[in-house]
């Protein structure tokens, strides 16, 4: 078994990988910018073209921050859900939070046609979509919390989350059937996911939600390790299962809801990153797993965004499709190779 020094070395390597992938991400785009000018932008040097500084600071850097926040936040959400439910398939998608956010956006986009005029324009603004997405996640969260108050079995709560996801998907399908082509197209584009549409103000707001959710997760680290041994054993050690369950669900909803609101529904990351990290760091100590998952999620999202930009091409692919195309085969390969998930 590797010692703590080895794990610290792996964490340092992951941090270096985050920096390198972020720099590669900054260097890619429709406008070619030399690496020395990118470095000069950050270290106060002379940049050959002033427009390059603007492109880096106002477009590419916010997108890199969005990728880091999105990937790390979804990965932490997946880790929390998998530990709470002691199920390797748990995650924000399975709990229905992402589906609730999608329903909120679908109601705004496809329901705007019934109002028409200035009100329709107001409903279709970016902030309306963000608020609708957050409310959708919150409503599903409240429903799951009500169910969790009645049920002690975490597996039953997981199944209820799946049912909520099915219900919201059915409502979205009905709305899509009766919606005009223009609104349906707008919803479809939102569902593709995007990292490049956020201003600095929006990135700061997303950072506040991300930091709050992460701080709540950090407060549960010790109890997360205990929960892996089973609820009865955790209770015998004095762990409050109900309180910890509430804190974990709130942290997950803050992370998944805000990320879905700003970047759209992004699949796979929350489920896969904790498993990929456990292949590198095969421990169940969340004091090591949590920072590793944060950096692993950031690296995966940055790599997926690099692939989505199709270097050498003017086209950009949907980030939601890339996360599945890049990650799903990796998880299948790991499962076949190891015959089971490390959990």
Automatic annotation (TrEMBL):
Keyword tags: Cell membrane, Membrane, Transmembrane, Transmembrane helix, Transport
GO cellular component, as recorded: plasma membrane
Cell membrane in keyword set: yes
One Pfam family this sequence matches: FecCD
A biological process from GO: siderophore-iron import into cell
Protein name (record): Iron ABC transporter permease
Membrane-crossing segments per the record: 64-81, 93-115, 127-149, 156-178, 203-225, 246-268, 288-308, 315-336
Record's bilayer topology term: Multi-pass membrane protein
Main location: membrane
GO MF, one example: transmembrane transporter activity
Subcellular localization(s) per the UniProt record: Cell membrane
InterPro entries, alphabetized: ABC_BtuC-like, ABC_transptr_permease_BtuC
Keyword Cell membrane: yes
Membership in a protein family: Belongs to the binding-protein-dependent transport system permease family. FecCD subfamily.
């Amino acid at each position: 078994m590797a010692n703590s020094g080895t794990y610290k070395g792996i964490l340092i390597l992951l941090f270096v990988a985050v920096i390198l992938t972020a720099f590669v991400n900054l260097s890619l785009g429709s406008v070619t910018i030399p690496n020395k000018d990118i470095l000069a932008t950050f270290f106060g040097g002379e940049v050959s073209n002033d427009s390059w500084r603007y492109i880096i600071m106002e477009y590419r850097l916010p997108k890199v921050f969005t990728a880091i926040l999105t990937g790390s936040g979804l990965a932490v959400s997946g880790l929390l859900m998998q530990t709470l439910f002691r199920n390797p398939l748990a995650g924000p998608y399975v709990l229905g939070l992402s589906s609730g956010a999608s329903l909120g956006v679908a109601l705004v986009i496809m329901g705007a046609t019934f109002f028409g005029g200035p009100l329709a324009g107001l409903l279709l603004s970016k902030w309306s979509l963000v608020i609708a997405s957050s409310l959708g996640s919150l409503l599903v969260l409240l429903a799951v919390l009500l169910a969790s108050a009645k049920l002690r079995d975490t597996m039953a709560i997981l199944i209820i989350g799946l049912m909520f996801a099915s219900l919201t998907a059915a409502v979205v399908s009905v709305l899509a059937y009766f919606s005009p082509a223009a609104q349906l197209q707008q919803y479809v584009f939102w569902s593709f996911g995007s990292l490049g549409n956020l201003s600095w103000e929006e990135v700061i707001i997303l950072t506040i939600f991300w930091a709050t959710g992460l701080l709540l997760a950090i407060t549960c680290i010790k109890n997360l390790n205990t929960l892996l041994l089973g609820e009865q054993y955790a209770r015998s050690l004095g762990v409050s299962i109900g309180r910890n369950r509430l804190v974990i669900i709130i942290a997950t909803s803050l992370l998944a809801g805000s990320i879905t609101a700003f970047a759209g529904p992004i699949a796979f990351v929350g489920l896969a990153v904790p498993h990929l990290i456990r292949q590198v760091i095969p421990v169940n100590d969340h004091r090591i797993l949590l920072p590793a998952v944060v950096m692993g999620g950031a690296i995966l999202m940055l790599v997926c965004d690099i692939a989505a930009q199709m270097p050498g091409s003017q086209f950009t692919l949907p980030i939601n499709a890339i996360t599945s195309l890049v990650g799903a085969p990796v998880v299948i390969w790991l499962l076949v190779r190891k015959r089971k998930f490390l959990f």
